[in-house]
Amino acid sequence: MKTLFLIVIFCCTIITTKAQTLESIRTDYAKAIEHTKLMADPDYPPCNRYQLVFEQMLGGSGQHKETLTMYYYQEENENDPGTTINTPYYFTTSYNYAGQKYHEEYLYTDKGKVEFIYALDLDFEDLSEVEYRFYIASSGVIKIIVNRKKSGESKFTQEYAGNTVSKYSSAYNKYLDKSVKLAKMFASIEAYQE
Q1: Torsions phi, psi of 86, nearest 5?
Q2: Distance of CA 110 to the CA centre of its chain
Q3: Which residues contact 112 (CB under 8 A, 6 or more apart)?
Q4: Long-range contacts made by residues 121-128, C-beta under 8 angstroms, separation at least 24?
Q5: How far, CA to CA in Å, does 58 sit from each of 20, 94, 112, 121, 158?
Q6: CB–CB of 134/116 below 8 Å?
Q7: What is the pLDDT of residues 79-128, one digit of tens each?
Q8: What's the burial of 140, exposed, middle or buried (CB within 10 Å: 0-12/13-18/19+)?
Q9: pTM of the model
């Protein structure tokens, strides 16, 4: 009986911890959205972001344009007064290929680890639009939400909500890899600024 009680307490603790972590990620995301609105306000003078625009003609798909915006945390460098340490915060990228629009968002912790990924993608098999939401803790993915809008439909419907990556591992790995590459790009820009 005592063992059963301990198992129930353990399971409740795990469920509570995951729910709290999921909620904290959602809270961080809401703060990031508010932050971007503040940075876009012309009456708010401080603006901490890098913005890159890539434009090129691509064979077979035409003119390509990608806009990448990198918001970052900024704190005083205690080892070098008067200087700051910048770490990735919230990145957005919007781009097109052959008339199809894509959008991605990457939210990082103050330690520079990705904690949330949103991606609007195209499934080439049935030409449906797919929304991915990956919530990531230090232990790995804690929640995945996948919504799909088939060609001709006006609204997304939920295809999956859970914490198993297997069916969506290809998309997860693709965007996780991109989050690392974007953080490296940010580090390169920072190095250029020195």
Answers
A1: -110, 135
A2: 14
A3: 87, 88, 183
A4: 121/171, 123/148, 126/150, 126/151, 127/151
A5: 45, 16, 33, 19, 33
A6: yes
A7: 988 888 999 999 999 998 777 889 999 999 999 999 999 999 999 888 89
A8: exposed
A9: 0.85
Q: Using alpha carbons only, what angle is made at residue 61 by residues 58 and 65, rounded to the nearest 5 degrees? A: 60
Sheet harboring 84-97: ordered strands across?
49-58, 62-76, 84-97, 100-108, 114-123, 128-137, 140-149, 157-162
pLDDT, mean of each 10-residue run, the chain (194 residues): 38 40 95 92 83 91 92 91 91 88 95 96 90 95 96 94 94 97 96 84
Q: Identify the domain containing residue 49 by its residue range.
A: 2-193
Q: What is the DSSP string of 83-101?
A: -EEEEEEEEEEEEEETTEE
Q: Which structure tokens are listed for 7?
A: 């198992």
Task: Give the separation between CA 190 and CA 111, rounded to whole angstroms.
Answer: 16
What confidence score (pLDDT) does residue 48 get? 86
> How many domains is the chain built from?
1
Element (H, E) at 103: strand 100-108
User: Nearest-5° angle of CA 96, CA 100, CA 101?
Assistant: 55
Cα-flanking dihedrals φ and ψ of residue 59, to 5°?
Answer: -60, 130
Q: Note whether 141 and 132 are within 8 A (CB).
A: no
> For position 122, what pLDDT does the model report?
92
What token pair was written down for 164? Answer: 């198993």
